[in-house]
Amino acid sequence: AQKITQTQPGMFVQEKEAVTLDCTYDTSDPSYGLFWYKQPSSGEMIFLIYQGSYDQQNATEGRYSLNFQKARKSANLVISASQLGDSAMYFCAMREASGNTPLVFGKGTRLSVIA
Amino acid sequence: GAVVSQHPSWVICKSGTSVKIECRSLDFQATTMFWYRQFPKQSLMLMATSNEGSKATYEQGVEKDKFLINHASLTLSTLTVTSAHPEDSSFYICSALGVLRQAFLRSAFFGQGTRLTVV
After folding, report:
1. Which A residues in the span 63-82 are in contact with B, Cβ-Cβ below 8 Å?
2. Nearest chain A CA: its distance from B16 CA (Å)
3. Is any Cβ of chain A less than 8 angstroms from the Cβ of B54?
4. C-alpha to C-alpha distance for B40 and B116, rounded to whole angstroms
5. How far apart are CA A66 and CA A51, in angstroms?
6. Do residue B44 and residue A33 have CB atoms under 8 angstroms apart?
7. What is the pLDDT of residue B102?
């Protein structure tokens, strides 16, 4: 069964600094996708970045990059130049390729950006 | 990106009444929709999977008679919370899978969520 682990319940970062949010996963399916979502207090799930298991390069989307280490089964999110608006819950999620499978989420990390 | 519209955004209802939440895919056909529930300060927990034209598949511990899911078309799925009680108060959010062959794995889109309060 697939599983996502986020071990950091909360993180603090100084404005303009970079921060890494940890995520490890477990799956027996060789084909899968890894996602990061941001959830502000409004509740909406904002898609940030995606990494496919066969992608050769680490994904990047603006200030977000995904440090994908397949052998270690880790998919850490790096946010560069943190902004006050980055304060939110961040969820790592995974989806296996076999069938119409749902996203499975980690417990999340609450990021607080300090001025 | 693709748009999923969920309605209402929030609802307050009396204990014992039923509430219907709609999830619509606006610009793509959603063959499968997922319903999640999120309690405060917790992660999203999958409640059920619905495929167009067939009965929903519920996760263990989710009462199918209480949480009625209908997926009658490729663009609409509904979740009805029947005989709601205060413990059903939660954030409910849907996710739709589109038919994007080139990006099958990443084609999961979320609605805005519905905050249900049962008083």
Report:
1. none
2. 26
3. no
4. 12
5. 7
6. no
7. 47
